[in-house]
Amino acid sequence: MHILLACLNAKFVHTNLALRYLRDAVRLEFPKTELREFTINERVERIAAEIFEAKAEVVGFSCYIWNLTETLAVIRQLRPVCPDSRFVLGGPEVSYDAGVFLSKHQEVDAVVYGEGERTFLELLQTWREKQKPENVLGLAWRDFTAEGMKIRLNPPRPLLAMSDLPIPYQVKEDFHGRLAYVETTRGCPFNCQYCLSSTIKGVRYLEPERFRIIFKRLLEDGARTIKFVDRTFNVQKRHAFQILDIVREEAEKYPPEEGIRAHCEIAGELLDQEWVNYLKDYPAGLLQFEVGVQSTYRPTLKIIDRMQHFEQWKGYIQELKCWGTLPLHLDLIAGLPEEDWENFRMSFNEVYAVQPDMLQLGFLKVLKGSGLREKSQEYGLVYSPDPPYTILQTRAMSHDELLKLHRLEDVLDRYYNSGKFQTVLPIALSLFASPFDFYHELAEFWQRRGWFKQSWSGKALFDKLWEFLESCLIQSKQRTQTINDLRKSLRDRLRFDYYRWERPGGIPKLLQIPEEELPEDYAADKVKIQFDERWQEKIPERRNMDRRQWARATAVEYFLNKGWVLFFYKNGRAEAYPLLDDNFEGV
Questions:
Q1: For 107-121, 358-372, 514-528, which range has the lowest pLDDT when averaged over its residues?
Q2: Contact, 60 vs 22, CB < 8 A?
Q3: How confident is the model at residue 579, as a pLDDT?
Q4: Do residues 329 and 412 touch, judged by C-beta distance below 8 A?
Q5: In whole angstroms, what is the distance from residue 186 CA to residue 178 CA?
Q6: Domain parsing of the chain, residue ranges
């Protein structure tokens, strides 16, 4: 039998872990099993054509809230021209009410619900023997009898120990430039009512040395960004430390410039001083943590069954962040029950105060089978009827307000999460009552100007921010001198961020310092500083560059608040070196 496993990923860089489990679960018995990955942004016709030309007898799709609509469109196009092929769906988006789903979609032959490694293998075995899969656990299927077609829902399959699962990534692949996914646990200790993980009790663990086999293979195949899909990576401290020891041991076999990084989702309330002590000596940049705060409003936390005390454990986050070696992403969810505009504002400001490397603002997805879906009427949850079931309004937050938060999310990503405006933002925020108010007002300014209707270059973002700040200063009720000082400071800091963003071919007029404010020998000093021989001591790369190469790799500029600064551009990054009293210092 020829088996084709397929998935429509959200982006090209993404890969699908589930398909690789399935492939390695069946390939010994069914060696003619191949894997194809597409994206939801590709044309349905092109995806369908590639699958059709594979001439597979069984086509399996991995389904999620972000790709189900597109996946069904592909199958509907294939069904008329592939009458003898069998289409099998699996994944979280089709596991709930699998029988009902199958009855609504005539183009699908079977649905694997729950974990599919053993179920999919047994299904293929029965089809190969031309038998009905009536004894295959965890399967919904079409049974054609003399009386007609009936939907059969077989009993669920008991969960397997992780040691009984196949080892993924046994087939050699090229993962350069792509995200690779691994897991060391299945299940979650929490019972969050917005999450499907709450429907499965208990946590299962992968034996650490078994993980080493997987991780080594990924590194050998070129993977440099590895993301753990464990729902709560730090659920058991001893296990997590063992896994992170392996990550460090295997990554240290490669030179630092390879840029290996492991991304883990953790629960902040499970952090303690032992965790901080362990991470203190961990290699810089090798780890990245994502922490789901979701909300700090206690009535909402109680409803979603995720009681936590952010004010108690945020200190550990701040300590980890102050080292500057471990990127930290903190998540918030908008549209949770009973959290109104003002309470969400408070949640946002509390999390922003920690200054995470990224503040990810998401919106509640009212998933099928989740506790919040079952109680949606009780909390006035109105959500999209189609995947991904995004919240539209709640009893506490109107649709208008949620649309404003969507716009706030957009500018937050552009200005804070991009990391391009680190110097100017602290001063810009001082013009407002809180960080939330700044981003909200900036988003509404964009809305009034119609700027969300088109795409903008990174350079244009500086212009947009300056126009917004100028309008704020014009409306300010402060003294003229104070406003003038603020304008100078904001412009100076925005110029500094502009230089850190990329080597400029020219400076926008709005960011230029008036000639009367520049040093007397500005042009001559600029050249003198750029080609000073002492840079060879501070920046070793200078020794291997001729004058022309050095000129292309650097820029020198004068700033009112910093004086002269040389910027060295390397691998898409800029390092800034202020000149203070004829001494060169890197920042």
A1: 514-528
A2: yes
A3: 86
A4: no
A5: 23
A6: 3-153, 162-395, 398-510, 513-587
| Per-position DSSP letters for 480-496, written without gaps between them | HHHHHHHHHHHHHHHHH
For the chain, what is the mean pLDDT? 94
Residues 46, 51, 53, 54: is their CA dihedral positive or negative?
positive
CB atoms within 10 A of CB 289: 24
**What does the block give as tokens for 531?**
């080609």
Omega prior to 387 cis, within 30 of 0: no
The helix (H) or strand (E) run that includes residue 242 is helix 237-251
**Token reading at 201:** 């009790």
47: amino acid identity, one letter: I
| Domain 162-395, classified CATH 3.40.50.300, yes or no | no
Rounded-to-integer distance, Cα 514 and Cα 45, Å: 57
Rounded to an integer, what distance in angstroms lies between the CA atom of residue 31 and that of residue 36? 15
User: Residue 587 — very low, low, confident or very high, per pLDDT cuts 50/70/90?
Assistant: very low
Give the span between the Cα atoms of 244 and 289, in whole angstroms: 12
Stretch 462-471: mean pLDDT: 95
In this structure, which CATH number among 3.90.226.10, 3.30.750.24, 3.40.50.280, 3.30.1330.130 belongs to the domain 3-153? Answer: 3.40.50.280
Q: What pTM does this model have?
A: 0.93
Provide CB contacts within 8 A for 180, sequence distance 6+: 15, 169, 218, 223, 225, 226, 227
Give the distance from CA 337 to its chain's centroid. Answer: 24
Per-residue pLDDT for 45 more than 50? Answer: yes
Give the sign of the dihedral formed by CA 229, CA 230, CA 233, CA 237.
Answer: negative
DSSP-derived secondary structure letter, 365: B
* Count of C-beta atoms within a 10 Å radius of residue 400: 9
Dist. CA 390–CA 408, nearest whole Å: 16
Rounded CA separation 140/95 (Å): 9
Backbone angles phi, psi at 476, to 5 degrees: -65, 145
Per-residue pLDDT of 17-40, as tens digits, reads: 999 999 999 999 999 999 999 999
In a 3-state reduction of DSSP, which class is residue 361? strand
